[in-house]
Design a protein that fits this description.
heterodimer; A: alpha/beta; 2 domains; 10 strands; B: mainly alpha; two-stranded antiparallel ribbon; 16 helices; globular; transport (chain A)
Chain lengths: 262, 343
């Protein structure tokens, strides 16, 4: 499903953290949001996913207005996300974390859950299978029974991706999924995101790793001080003088250039 | 915010990792039934060693408190919500069981009505006050408990006022007589209370491992993340609040019947604090924590009457030390010790 952001904005105490940002993310594509720290990227995610309430603008999923819906209602319309500052469930095992992502597919009712009826066990068993498969896909299967509190930052980032995937989402917002990952892990995350998009999901990515962004994005939106300063394909963004001045700088441009030749 | 302090994974020995990654053993009996059986054995053990009716009466109190505290475990341990007003729900169950038989309603129905009333009240007030969190929720529930306590102590025509009231009606002895067992009243109530606590524990354990329970535990750690996975956080919190109120009300109804007498203090602030303290002392994350907390804080004052003047000091001292040395409560502390020794 396509995600349309139309003139969205929010102000905190008179400061416009996000101001009149519009773009469209399409199914089967990776749309990346880049920009310097404090540009409003994560705030934008929080607006789109219903954590904050937008003071201006609209969010549409496949043309349907979903502006102002609470987070769980957006999740039911197929939106899932990961968090920059990690929102895992540290008291649970990795497996339980991901199983929680199956919540919307679980059909047992509260009474069956309380009485331990067969239907509750069946749903739990099904969620366990789905969660194991997602952990496998994220390269975390051997850590399934570890408490999340004992996993590394990079592993937790991937745990969040697995958890978002099992929701059965069609739109996936990824907030710095490769942060804390080493080069090998970054490559794995890169492949994973690529595969997710190839399944026809709409992927929106916030990422500072320019090599990764240039490699997997079909479309890039550049934010600076809450405003969109550029938008286009990787090639276009790499050569845009505004973007180089505001964000990429000489070093970033070189990295992006290098990525183009990988 | 959840997820802090999780940035580095401690290096572990290979063997330890091996143990951790093994899938959970397949069990023939489910966790709920297993918990019920463990509780049943403990109830039976008590009956085996108790020398007098006095012990049975204290034992009955332990099980009734365990039941009430299991409700706190669901609310505080699973979802992470603090209520300082649960004695109010406890008292609603107790007073309905005391009052309604005076109007010709049989005790079992009176109990049921009291429990239903507590559940409905929790449902009605839950939605608005559960929007609050942390201290604010604690204060709001405290206010709710106070209101209930005030009604109970002021409406003397109905509740007997501060002096409390006699509870007439059902005696558990008759239940056992029906199946040909002759028990003393104190013994009969002990078995009934123990059975209720075992059922309550099994239900709470079932919940923990179920889809609904995972959603509740998710809210405990991060409500933002829970919401992003489609969990209706307000609804889930409200459900947990109602469930825990039902636990308290059933426990209150049992206490009224077993004691044959109740006072407004069953709904007082100190009783609410006591319930939360039991949960925290034993370990709010499990029903066994509820049992251990209830056991210690019910039995210890009986033992400490020997020290009369120092009773509160000793109790307070134990609490302070527990919180300093084992913040997650006794049961998780002991389980950790056990696991460490095994590996």
């Amino acid at each position: 499903m396509s995600l349309d952001i139309d003139g969205i904005g929010i102000a905190f105490g008179g400061i416009k953290a996000v101001d009149d940002v519009s773009f469209t993310a399409r199914p089967g594509e990776v749309t990346s949001i880049i920009g310097p720290n404090g540009a409003g990227k994560t705030t934008l995610f929080n607006l789109v996913s219903g954590v904050y309430r937008a003071s201006a603008g609209r969010v549409r999923i496949d043309g349907q207005d979903v502006t102002g819906l609470p987070g769980h209602a957006l999740a039911r319309r197929g939106m899932a996300r990961t968090f920059q500052n990690l929102q895992v469930f540290p008291q649970m095992s990795a497996l339980d974390n991901v199983m929680t992502g199956c919540h919307m597919q679980e059909k047992s009712n509260l009474l069956a859950d309380l009485l331990g009826l067969a239907s509750a066990h069946r749903e739990t068993a099904r969620s366990r299978d789905a969660a194991m498969a997602a952990l496998q896909r994220a390269g975390l299967a051997e850590l399934a029974h570890r408490p999340a509190s004992e996993m590394s930052y990079g592993q937790l980032k991937r745990l969040e991706i697995a958890r978002a995937l099992v929701t059965g989402c069609t739109i996936l917002l990824l907030d710095e999924p490769a942060a804390g990952c080493n080069a090998v892990e970054t490559r794995e995350v890169d492949d994973l995101i690529h595969a997710i998009a190839a399944e026809g999901k709409t992927v929106v990515l916030i990422e500072h790793d320019m090599r990764m962004v240039m490699r997997i994005s079909s479309h890039i939106v550049v934010l600076d001080q809450g405003r969109k300063i550029a938008e286009g394909g990787p090639e276009e963004i790499r050569n845009n003088p505004h973007v180089i001045a505001a964000y990429l700088g000489a070093h970033g441009a070189a990295e992006a250039e290098a990525a183009a030749h990988v | 915010m959840a997820g802090q302090g999780t940035t580095t994974a401690p290096q572990e020995s290979g063997r330890e990792m091996q143990a951790r990654t093994e899938p959970a053993r397949r069990r023939v009996i489910g966790p709920g039934l297993r918990t019920f059986l463990i509780f049943a054995v403990l109830v039976g053990l008590g009956a085996l060693i108790f020398p007098s009716s006095y012990f049975y009466r204290v034992g009955t109190l332990v099980w009734i408190n365990t039941l009430a505290v299991t409700g706190i475990v669901v609310l505080l341990g699973y979802v992470g919500l603090v209520s300082l007003g649960h004695a109010g729900f406890f008292a609603i169950g107790a007073y309905a069981t005391a009052i309604l038989p005076n109007y010709g309603i049989p005790s079992p129905l009176a109990m049921l009505a009291g429990v239903a009333l507590a559940g409905l009240l929790a449902l009605a007030v839950g939605r608005p006050i559960l929007k609050l969190s942390g201290y604010y929720l604690a204060i709001a529930t405290l206010g709710l408990g106070m209101l209930i306590w005030m009604v109970l102590s002021k409406e003397a025509w109905l509740t007997g006022g501060p002096d409390g009231m006699v509870v007439s009606g059902m005696n558990a002895r008759n239940l056992f007589k029906m199946v040909g067992l002759k028990l003393k009243s104190a013994e009969a109530w002990y078995w009934v209370a123990g059975f209720a606590a075992a059922i309550g524990a099994a239900i709470a354990v079932n919940l923990a491992g179920s889809p609904s329970g995972r959603a509740l535990r998710a809210i405990h750690d991060s409500d933002v993340a829970a919401r992003s996975l489609g969990v209706d956080v307000a609804k889930a919190k409200s459900r947990a609040f109602v469930i825990s109120a039902l636990y308290a009300a059933v426990a209150g109804a049992l206490l009224a019947l077993a004691n044959g007498y109740i006072t407004p203090e069953t709904g007082g602030f100190m009783h609410s604090v006591e319930m939360v303290t039991m949960a925290v002392l034993g370990g709010a994350s499990s029903v066994f924590g509820a049992l251990v907390g209830a056991l210690i804080l019910t039995a210890l004052p009986q033992v400490l009457t020997v020290f009369a003047d120092y009773e509160h000091m000793v109790l307070g001292g134990i609490m302070v030390l527990t919180m300093i040395a084992m913040r997650r409560g006794l049961v998780p502390f002991i389980v950790d010790l056990w696991n460490r020794r095994k590996s």
